[in-house]
């Protein structure tokens, strides 16, 4: 009987082989087109792209193909031996014995199908690989046709002749779909088990092998099949003396395996992106695909599949890791001050290469996907260097010119623009060097009045800053950083200062071509501004002499803070690098008590120190057209309009406004002495109605008994973000021979004296000035706008109508 069964099996095998041979002769079997192993390996595309640093180190892995989850190609030597054993036992026990087709299993399956008997599948690993390589042999929804089965069988034999067994098994492990979108052993092991393929143990290998047979089966069925694979992997089961013991242990293992399989199938440990530069990776991919162009023009957009699984960039891996660590550490130190986000950008001055790009604080942020390097934010005082550079280039000012830091009320179409300093104190007459280095707001606004908002807007555009609105839209608040600018563009604009006013686009991909520079700013003005921003003595009035901005090597730096401390910046450069840092909240919420020196500046200083730990930084050489001149300053003049003339002359003999020094000038604008005429101080704040004294040629003092401020038609806008006590309106009158003036507001007594402060209240008001006899000497009408005023505990950092901080 047994001999007859053997002969019957052999006959079925012969008939099946004959059928395959006849099918192979048909024109449809184009098996000669099967790829080689090298071609399959070369055409393999992971769903992720590896972003490499300039040193070749992987700094980010990012998913670029959303249609499939495929990891890296894993060589067979890097696959767990347990998995190789489990897969062969589960799918093809005689894999190393047959020539691509297991004729014994195929004949048994054919005979069983003939008699409607349930049998195990006869597809070998080689046949399955043929189906993965050629879509003609791939199984459809209704199963394979007879022609497909014959073609797959012939293709498997061709593969077995052309490929080695280890190549077939390796390709199969990397191409076989496991579950859902997961394809290949690397994606499976990292997704379900959170480890590389070489670390899979027996249980994990059994689950993986079970998923090949039924990729989308329920966890209970997967565990059942995995348990069978696990038993087949245990040679102890074949020993009769240990059957009882092994059966009990195997049953226990299978129960545990079901729990393990259920947990593993719900696991998703393979993140879409991983590394230290996620935002930079997205930007670099867009640059590679030609979707960016100039610096920062691609602020958003999706990522499509790329043509290479690896992308080498300009990033420095050690610097990137240090920048991430420094930013996170500093934000942890600021915990309790309501600040959780930040961004860092480091550029190479000569080439524009991005050396470090930190888009967010990562785990510390609630909006870690927002790229702080590309997100537009208010730059605050960091725009002042470009304003003063333009004024110097146009020869409206020099670095030694004296500008008035005092209360100013500038009439605009929307009312009075009243700029304030960070500490709400005024320094009087100061040089441009001091005004810029100490980040004084009122002199900057006075400078913008000379330059005009439209001209400054064009200058910012020439430096690559994408301002959406016109200069008239921002008005004089443009001097204090009211528009929104991304850190990428702002840092690159500062890089132009480092390059003598020359601007070029940043780049993230290595290139042999030299950067194409364009002149965005006068080189002479750029040099002078850089010299000012590197001057620690000029910075001392606001930041002190022992500031975190002071480095042991040459650097130039400017800080900035926007309205209500929502954005804090530190941007500066050395001889070789430009570093920009932003600290704030991605939501736009205000920080608590975070200034220019406590927010972004410590991060900036730490990164600069890292860059120049073994590399010097020297001051730049002056360009042509710049000369140095020794300058002296005259004594200070009193700028109070209500001070007696005798007191003004007495103070005129005081110390000079600033110490004598060597100063840089655009050639032709130098002079040795700078002073303010004693009469100019009261004349500067006097009413515009005053007439010149025909004898002296100087403006005459205003007529006694006149209201100097507010002027007629003044419109005062209340800011709900600023405490009421910080928005008091100062009313002043010319003294004459009588300082006992009486003030009346809307017919009611308000106070007495030459000056008075009043807490504004919304509405139209009539202000009168009367003498001791009650006679009205002058009257003005003004309006206060704003229905409500928020009560807050601390003074606001400022607003777009004039209150900004350094």
Using brief descriptors, characterize the structure shown:
disordered C terminus; single chain; Penicillin binding protein transpeptidase fold; Immunoglobulin-like; alpha+beta; five-stranded mixed sheet
Structural summary, described in words:
- The protein is of the alpha+beta class.
- Among the domains are: 12-44 and 72-265, Penicillin binding protein transpeptidase fold (Orthogonal Bundle); 626-685, no CATH class; 707-785, Immunoglobulin-like.
- The chain has 24 helices and 29 strands.
- A hairpin with a 5-residue loop joins strand 8 (341-348) and strand 9.
Write a short abstract of this structure:
With 806 residues, the protein is of the alpha+beta class.
**What is the tally of helical segments?**
24
Number of strands: 29
Stated plainly, the CATH topology of the domain at 12-44 and 72-265 is called Penicillin binding protein transpeptidase fold
Low-pLDDT regions: 11-16, 18-30, 114-120, 236-252, 291-307, 638-643, 678-702, 787-806
End-to-end separation in angstroms reads 101 Å
Task: Kindly report the spatial arrangement of strands forming the biggest sheet.
Answer: 9-8-18-17-16
Largest sheet: 5 strands, antiparallel
Oligomer: single chain
CATH evolutionary superfamily of the domain at 12-44 and 72-265: Biosynthetic peptidoglycan transglycosylase-like
SS-based class: alpha+beta
Mean pLDDT: 80
What is the C-alpha radius of gyration, as a whole number of Å? 39 Å
Task: Give the CATH architecture of the domain at 12-44 and 72-265.
Answer: Orthogonal Bundle
Shape: elongated
Q: Level of helix content?
A: 25-40%
């Amino acid at each position: 009987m047994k001999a007859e069964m053997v002969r019957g099996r052999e006959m079925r095998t012969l008939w099946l082989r004959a059928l395959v041979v006849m099918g192979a002769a048909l024109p449809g079997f184009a098996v000669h087109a099967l790829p080689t192993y090298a071609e399959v390996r070369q055409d393999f595309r992971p769903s992720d792209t590896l972003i490499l640093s300039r040193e070749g180190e992987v700094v980010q892995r990012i998913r670029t193909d959303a249609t499939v989850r495929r990891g890296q190609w894993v060589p067979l030597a890097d696959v767990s031996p347990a998995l190789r054993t489990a897969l062969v036992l589960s799918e093809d026990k005689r894999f190393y014995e047959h020539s691509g087709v297991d004729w014994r299993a195929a004949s048994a399956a054919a005979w069983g199908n003939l008699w409607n008997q349930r049998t195990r599948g006869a597809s070998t690993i080689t046949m399955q690989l043929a189906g993965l390589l050629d879509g003609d042999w791939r199984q459809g929804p209704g199963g394979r046709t007879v022609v497909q089965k014959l073609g797959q069988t012939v293709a498997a034999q061709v593969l077995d002749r052309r490929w080695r067994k280890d190549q077939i098994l390796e390709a199969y492990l990397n191409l076989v779909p496991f579950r859902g979108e997961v394809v290949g052993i690397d994606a499976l092991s990292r997704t379900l088990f959170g480890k590389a393929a070489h670390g899979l143990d027996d249980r994990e290998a059994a689950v993986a092998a079970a998923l090949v047979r039924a990729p989308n089966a329920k966890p209970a069925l997967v565990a059942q099949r995995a348990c069978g694979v696990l038993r087949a992997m245990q040679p102890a089961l074949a020993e009769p003396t240990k059957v009882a013991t092994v059966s009990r242990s195997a049953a226990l293992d299978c129960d545990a395996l079901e729990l393990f399989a259920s947990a593993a199938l719900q696991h998703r440990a393979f993140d879409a992106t991983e590394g230290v530069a996620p935002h930079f990776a997205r930007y670099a991919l867009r640059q590679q695909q030609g979707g960016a162009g100039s610096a920062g023009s691609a602020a958003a957009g999706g990522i499509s599949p790329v043509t290479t699984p690896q992308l080498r960039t300009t990033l420095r891996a050690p610097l990137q890791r240090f920048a991430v660590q420094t930013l996170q550490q500093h934000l942890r130190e600021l915990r309790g001050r309501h600040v959780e986000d930040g961004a860092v950008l480091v550029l190479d001055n000569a080439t524009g290469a991005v050396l470090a790009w930190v888009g967010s604080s990562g785990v510390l942020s609630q909006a870690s996907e927002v790229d702080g390097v590309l997100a537009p934010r208010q730059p605050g005082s960091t725009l002042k260097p470009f304003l003063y550079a333009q004024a110097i280039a146009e020869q409206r000012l020099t670095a030694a010119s004296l500008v008035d830091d005092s209360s100013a009320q500038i009439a605009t179409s929307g009312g009075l623009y009243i700029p304030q300093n960070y500490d709400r104190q005024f320094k009087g007459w100061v040089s441009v060097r001091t005004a810029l280095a100490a980040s004084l707001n009122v002199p900057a606004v006075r400078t913008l009045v000379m330059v005009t908002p439209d001209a400054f807007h064009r200058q910012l555009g020439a430096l690559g800053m994408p301002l959406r609105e016109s200069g008239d839209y921002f008005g004089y608040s443009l001097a204090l950083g009211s528009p929104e600018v991304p850190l990428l563009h702002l840092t690159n604009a500062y890089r132009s200062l480092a390059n003598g006013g020359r601007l070029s686009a940043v780049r993230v991909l290595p290139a042999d071509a030299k950067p194409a520079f364009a002149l965005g700013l006068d080189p002479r003005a750029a040099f002078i501004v850089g010299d000012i921003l590197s001057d620690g003595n000029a910075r001392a009035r606001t930041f002190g002499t022992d500031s975190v901005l002071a480095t042991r090597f040459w650097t130039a730096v400017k800080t900035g803070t926007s309205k209500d401390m929502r954005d804090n910046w530190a941007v500066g450069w050395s001889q070789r690098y430009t570093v920009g840092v932003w600290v704030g909240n991605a939501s736009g919420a205000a920080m608590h008590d975070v200034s220019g020196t406590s927010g972004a500046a410590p991060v900036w200083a730490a990164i600069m120190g890292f860059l120049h730990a073994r590399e010097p930084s020297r001051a730049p050489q002056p360009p042509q057209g710049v000369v140095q001149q020794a300058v002296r300053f005259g004594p200070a003049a009193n700028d109070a309009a209500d001070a007696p003339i005798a007191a003004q002359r007495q103070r005129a003999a005081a110390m000079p406004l600033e110490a004598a020094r060597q100063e840089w000038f655009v050639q032709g604008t130098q002079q040795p002495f700078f002073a303010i005429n004693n009469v100019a101080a009261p004349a500067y704040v006097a009413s515009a109605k005053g007439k010149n004294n025909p004898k002296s040629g100087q403006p005459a003092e205003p007529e006694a008994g006149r209201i100097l401020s507010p002027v007629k038609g003044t419109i005062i806008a209340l800011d709900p973000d600023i405490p009421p006590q910080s928005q008091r309106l100062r009313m002043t009158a010319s003294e004459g021979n009588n300082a006992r003036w009486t003030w009346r507001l809307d017919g009611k007594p308000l106070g007495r004296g030459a000056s008075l402060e009043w807490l504004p209240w919304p509405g139209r008001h009539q202000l009168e000035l009367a003498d001791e006899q009650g006679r009205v000497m002058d009257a003005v009408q003004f309006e206060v706008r704003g229905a409500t005023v928020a009560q807050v505990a601390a003074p606001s950092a400022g607003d777009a109508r004039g209150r900004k901080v350094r």
